[in-house]
Amino acid sequence: MAGWIEVTMRKACSLAIALLVLGTMAVPAQDSSALIDTYRRNFVRSSLGTKLELLKEASAYDDVDMGPLYDTALQFILGNASLLSTDALLRDMSVLSVNMIRKYKYAPASENLWDLFEIYKDNLVRVPILQTLAEVATGNKTILGELNSFLDKQISLFKSGSRVDEAVLAGAVSALGKLGDASSFPYLFAAYTASVSKNITDRAGVAMAALKGDYASFLAEVIRTDKPAEKAAALEAGLRGEALPPEQRAELAETALAVGVPFQSASQSEQAYIVALRASAARELTAREWQKASPLAIKHFYDFQLQYNRGQVSKSNFLESIALLGAMGTTDAAQALALYLQLINNETEQGKTYDEQISLAVVNNLGRLGDKAAFDYLLYMGYLQYPESVKKAARDALQKLRW
Questions:
Q1: Is there a contact between 185 and 208 (Cβ–Cβ < 8 Å)?
Q2: What phi and psi, each to the nearest 5 degrees, are found at residue 402?
Q3: Which of 240, 171, 243 is nearest to 211 (CA)?
Q4: What does each C-alpha distance from 333 to 19, 159, 281, 373, 396 come to in angstroms?
Q5: Are 309 and 271 in contact (CB under 8 A)?
Q6: Complete DSSP assignment for 335-368
Q7: Cα(first)–Cα(last) distance of the chain, in Å?
Q8: Number of helices followed by number of strands (H, E) in the chain
Q9: pLDDT tens, residue by residue, 149-202
């Protein structure tokens, strides 16, 4: 008996849908407004199961904006919000309506979409809502403010040790990137630096770079004003992939070096971030051969020389500061490096231990610079107790000097 009732109900539902479709077919195809109104009236009158079938039927229209119908469906769903967590039909109706609003790019539904987002905690609904808002809510300051606030709260929750839904968080980050409003930068930067996951960090980096406005200036301001950890993260963000064009990358690195060289902190962790900031900036400026940074490069070299002697920076950091001078192509950079070679020669002559790797780096970069200021010091290396590898490098460098 129960099976017969189920079959009968299914047939009745199919008949109702057929009648509804026939009713809509009577509306002239060119009269889109009348067609939508017919669907909306039938939706209001239908049972829950028939409503879903009607919404599926309407989704086939490509040349008619059926957005108002799905906005009506959202209003119905919101009016029955208490059933969302238990009624599978209502959930399916939610997902379908959200996706169709995205298909038709029906912007007037934005506020209803956000209301549904706040009520429904399931990421199977929340993620499609965020994807839809990213396409329909452009220029909607209310939705933008809500999304910024949501991301802010989620990052705060994560930092406090609470669990966050990463799929929803990723959706919010991507949505803000697509909406592209500059007001989202601090919230996206917080997501970028929160270390939620590589996925979130990568998405936040892409989203920040997609915002309208001067992205390089946003990052430079963080480097100038924020804490060392944020300074280092801002430079890293600017140097990721193709976030910035080459000239802006170099300018950002120059800003970072200008901030980092004079920075002093009693905190070892802060100082470690500053060393990382300076080393990253030095590598970028070396790769770009950014001569405008030559005075900074010299200061950076002298300071890292001192810190290396004290064991405060690694040999790798110091070698990179030498390479930076070699990339500057200026007389001042050559003179600074030549004077350091004079110091190495004096200590070697006195029988002190020298570092072959550092000696070779100095000699090779003097050869790269090709400035005759290094002539006497390179020539003198042939008379000191250096290994043949260093002497050969000195002879090669001498051949590259310009007269």
A1: yes
A2: -100, 135
A3: 243
A4: 85, 45, 17, 10, 19
A5: no
A6: HHHHHHHHHHHHHHHTT----HHHHHHHHHHHHH
A7: 107
A8: 21, 0
A9: 999 999 999 999 999 999 999 999 999 999 999 999 999 999 999 999 999 999
